[in-house]
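Ticket #4471: structure export looks truncated?
Reporter: QA, pipeline team
Priority: medium

Steps to reproduce: submit the single chain below to the structure queue and open the exported record.
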Amino acid sequence: MESIQSIKQRFELIGNDPKLNRAIEKAMQVAPTDISVLVTGESGVGKEAIPKIIHSLSHRKHAKYIAVNCGAIPEGTIDSELFGHEKGAFTGATQTRSGYFEVADGGTIFLDEVGELPLTTQVRLLRVLENGEFLKVGSSQVQKTDVRIVAATNVNMFEAIKKEKFREDLYYRLSTVEINIPPLRERQEDIHLLFRKFASDFGQKYKMPTIRLDDTAIELLLKYRWPGNIRQLRNIAEQISVLEERRTISASTLHGYLPNANATNLPAVVGSQKKESDFSNEREILYKVLFDMKGDLNDLKKLTLELLKNNDSDKVQEENETLIRKIYGTKEESIPEDAVATEVLHLPEPEPVIESSSYNAPTPEDRYHFAEEIQEEETLSLQEKEIELIKKSLERNRGKRKAAASELGISERTLYRKIKQYDL
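Actual output as written to the record:
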């Protein structure tokens, strides 16, 4: 059995990180078997090297090896690409076509970005994994295939399963053995080695002297987070090799090629939810105050009505003082000294009797109807203000009820009911 070092040389894998070595070791161990393997890791870490190692060390090494990028094939044609189709199966199917699973019979298929597969295709793939059977698009004849499947993804599979974008049963079929490739930022000692290798390759390719980093540039290189991993490192090494005349690169020069170079290697804490705006909080407080004021006004109107109906001044005076305590506080000392004097409802003095025959004193019924008119006018005023607020909010949000309801602090259903009620 080949050593890890010889495998690295054969597949041009650079680095001595323990996590990378462990991933290569697992690939070498599972290669002689036919079990499915799932390679995980961020985009650009070099996941495509693992299926090549597995195929080359397996008993299938003399059969075909086909790599398929599932994310690059349109959803409408991916079933045809993988499983083939019959003539006339769909518009443009002018002849029968063999899919990758038929062509690679006896060999290995590498499904890159397997997390991007449509759900319908996932069902077909699960059947291949379970019993080696598949159907061509437009055919009812079951075909058999003997392929080794190695898949790779940069998607969080458990999150995808939770969101019902990936089948749980398929995940467990694919990940009989899972091999994780660490991101470049976790391979500190390998970063400079990789950069020197890329710089040497591009120097030979473009027939230029190889670029070299000074100490400050090396320090910056190691501090950078490398979100694009090895792919990004290689791209920057190529840019510098072609564009820089000076072949010794300083930190200031390297800084110009690194996006967000001031970001550290420390993990960032990101809030899961946005806080509500200050405007929303102020609006809620304002609505609460207005509703409280409305309740107090209703209490005052009831007192006025009671007074006009019964003319029981002592009872009304007592209830009025209770209302003042409710507004200013529950304890006596919290009530301003002049509150009762200024806020209580003063009962009208007995009206002088006018002997003129043209004057008729108001009856209790008249007083009752008068109180009803006052109550109706005030209620109508509040209603008009509510209508005005709803109209302005709908105009500002161009008639979008959801946005208007959010701005008004009410549910969309309540807003819809009020629009019908006021015929807006």
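Status: closed, not a bug. The export was complete when the record was re-opened. Leaving a note from the reviewer for reference: The chain has 18 helices and nine strands.
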